[in-house]
Q: What sequence folds into this?
């Protein structure tokens, strides 16, 4: 899968999840590549595009150890309950060393998963992971 295809797919899934959750579930997300010596943002969707690059290293902190461990295969995902506000809540491996990272700037994952509407939309997230498992992003 190309970056453009991956972005379009993630955007479609986020729209379906937002509709089922009745508010934006993850109001910002990025495609983030972790490689030896350099990490980079390949795509960003959200309201902080002006300040994201200067704050990203801080905001990714709750996920950083897991991301750098490199133990995730395409389709696998991880949720942090340490993210709040600008700190990212979740990631999904979408290709070798490439992750979609997700954030809700108003709610923590603990608040999201406590909401009964979460159960009705989480299958979209799982299905997204399955798509990347069978057709990973090749940057």
A:
């Amino acid at each position: 899968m190309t970056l453009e295809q991956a972005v379009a797919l993630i955007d479609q899934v986020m729209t379906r999840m937002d509709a089922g959750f009745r508010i934006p579930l993850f109001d910002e997300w990025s495609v983030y590549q972790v490689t030896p010596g350099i990490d980079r943002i390949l795509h960003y969707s959200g309201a902080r595009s002006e300040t994201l690059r200067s704050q990203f290293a801080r905001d990714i902190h709750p996920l950083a150890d897991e991301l750098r461990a490199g133990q995730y295969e395409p389709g696998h995902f991880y949720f942090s309950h340490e993210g709040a506000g600008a700190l990212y809540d979740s990631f999904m491996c979408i290709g070798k060393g490439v992750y979609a990272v997700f954030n809700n700037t108003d709610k923590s994952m603990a608040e999201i998963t406590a909401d009964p509407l979460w159960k009705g939309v989480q299958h979209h997230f799982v299905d997204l992971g399955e798509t990347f498992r069978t057709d990973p992003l090749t940057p």
Remarks:
- The longest helix spans residues 3-21.
- The chain is about 45% helix and 20% strand.
- Residues 75 and 127 are 9 Å apart (CA to CA).
- The helical segments are 3-21, 52-59, 61-69, 109-114, 116-134.
